[in-house]
Amino acid sequence: MGTLFFFNLFCGPGSGKGTQCANIVQHYGYTHLSAGDLLRAERDSGSENGTMIDNMIAEGKIVPSEVTIKLLERAILETDNDKFLIDGFPRNEENRAAFESVTGIEPEFVLFFDCSEEEMTRRLLSRNQGRTDDNIETIKKRFKVYMESSLPVIEYYNSKGKVRRIDATKPVEEVFDAVKACFAPSGGTIAA
Ligand code: ADP
Ligand code: C5P
Ligand code: MG
User: Fold this and answer.
1) Would you say 170 is a known binding-site residue?
2) What three-state secondary structure class fits 43?
3) CA distances from residue 153 to 42, 58, 87, 93 in whole angstroms, order as listed
4) Which end of the chain is more exposed for a tag (fewer CB within 10 A), N or C?
5) Helices first, then strands: H and E counts in the chain
6) Separation CA 79–CA 86 (nearest Å)
7) Ligand 1 pocket, 171 CB below 6 A?
8) Which residues does a ribonucleoside 5'-phosphate bind (predicted)?
């Protein structure tokens, strides 16, 4: 079983990736690797990259791939599982190209959670996890980075027929029903 990447298009932050990953882990036995969670843990561990990671997150910028890929590789090696759900990665072309050249792994498919900026902003502002980037100024920067940097990556995967689009504005249970359809052998809808 190969690696499964998980991310979404410009409707990125707050679209419900973490929420649905928890459902997928429970239902399908994947190991959930969130690039953002790994970066926050690395920052909090007092590592030499801590300050740089902290600044990048507060500004909504993408941390250099070498740092994030090392954390992902370490997490992959630490588990016996061979099924991974990678959440929030790749975020830009550099992330994608570097990960594929270092690991030689390509995703089976990519879930794209389609959600309006308005709804994502509402969710982020009520997430209440004490995150330094869930404030309106940083949220605007994160959307901009998502549009500029993540769009080319989703287009790349779309050209390979790997993108599965899901309406993420619906309630959690309905979104999960759509996610389950993507895991079914027939494979869900291919994005236009
Ligand atoms: P992401 O990982 O994409 O940033 P999260 O899974 O952390 O998003 O979700 C952001 C917030 O929105 C959380 O507070 C979560 O409980 C809530 N949420 C997630 N999915 C839905 C949904 N389908 N409908 C309403 N709220 C949701
Ligand atoms: O995915 P999540 O919302 O948890 O990401 C939070 C932040 O972590 C991003 O806005 C970005 O600053 C950083 N990040 C990154 N590279 C990734 C994933 C997240 O730099 N691949
Ligand atoms: Mg998340």
Assistant:
1) yes
2) helix
3) 25, 23, 14, 6
4) C
5) 9, 5
6) 14
7) yes
8) 40, 61-63, 88-91, 131, 142
The ligand 2 site (C-beta within 6 Å) comprises 13, 34-36, 39, 56-57, 60-63, 68, 88-89, 91, 95, 133, 142
pLDDT bucket at 192, cuts 50 / 70 / 90: very low
User: What is the average pLDDT across 73-82?
Assistant: 90
Residue 187: predicted pLDDT:
60
Predicted TM-score of the model (pTM):
0.91
For residue 15, what is the DSSP state? S
Which atom of ligand 1 lies closest to the CA of 129? 14
> Is 189 part of any known ligand binding site?
no
- Ligand (nearest to CA of 40): 2
Cβ-Cβ contacts under 8 Å for 39 (sequence gap 6 or more): 53, 57, 63, 67, 68, 71
Atom of ligand 1 nearest to the CA of 8: 3
**Contact in structure between 154 and 192 (CB atoms under 8 Å):** no
Rounded mean pLDDT of 6-24? Answer: 79
Query: CATH class for domain 5-183?
Result: alpha beta
